[in-house]
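Please, structure for the following, as tokens.
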Amino acid sequence: MVPPFSYLRARSLDEALRYLSQEGARAHAGGTDLLGCLRERIFEVTTVVSIAGLKELRGIAATPSGGLRIGSLTTIAEIARHPVIQSKYRALSMAANEVASPQLRNQGTIGGNLCQKPRCWYYRGEFHCLRKGGDQCYAVEGENAYHCILGGENCFIVHPSDTAPALVALQASVSIAGPNGRRTVAVEDFHMSPADDYTRETVLEPAEIVTEIVLPPPAPGLQSSYRKVRARRSWDFALAGVALAVVFNGNRADDCRVVLSGAAPVPWRSAEAEKVVRGRQLNRDRAAQAAEAALENADPMEQNAYKIPLFRNLIEQQLMAIG
């Protein structure tokens, strides 16, 4: 049962930020994650502040530099079917198409997808785990088939977003507004590692919200993609996923970004795999070496070692497909 709360509908961004400065206030946009968190008592809420009516936070438009601005309230479905995103930022379109179900893609927003809470069943269940102020991560000795194999420390969640790895690969940034003004953060630096703070998922401070996502102009020769493997075809999170952004000069990969989903507590950029590919011709041997390099620091738990060959094969296949 959802606990009682006050509900305020903001008429402007400034009004929303003022409401959100109240103790116990939370922003409501699409609500696909918020309502679940309320039912599961993930956090205490006294006031829900709706920002759904703020038109300035919606829409997709070109930037003066030739990039793209996406308002944080733009739905996942709008992003998936937008012709410019499909043609110039294919990884993001593909990732948006992989999010949840058609109903949730029509309701959920890109801002919410970036800021969603972990799906770990201990965190979502009746366990006072480390992330909720307890003294242990129950996944360490519990059911950990879906937990991380990279970047785990203290807390072993996997980051649930499909769009975030694609945005990291495409070098996007987020604009943030709060009581102390506005700032811009690269999506690569937006999510918080448990090693830095296991009680937070993002760098957002209290009362701050994401207002837009900005994609830079695509480099000449850019090819990008996203693919995820999941237990069920729809309404499921990634067991393994990879976002690629490769800048080709003929047959040579001048630049390469490899970002994994379903692997780590944050979207996981593999510098090891990128080093193998960058500046070289992309062939089957090179793809296999890159896939091997991406997993060289993996540290699986008792039940999730299957993710290593799964990721290895996925990365190799996608590098060959993009080349």
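The first helix runs from residue 13 to 20. The chain is about 30% helix and 20% strand.
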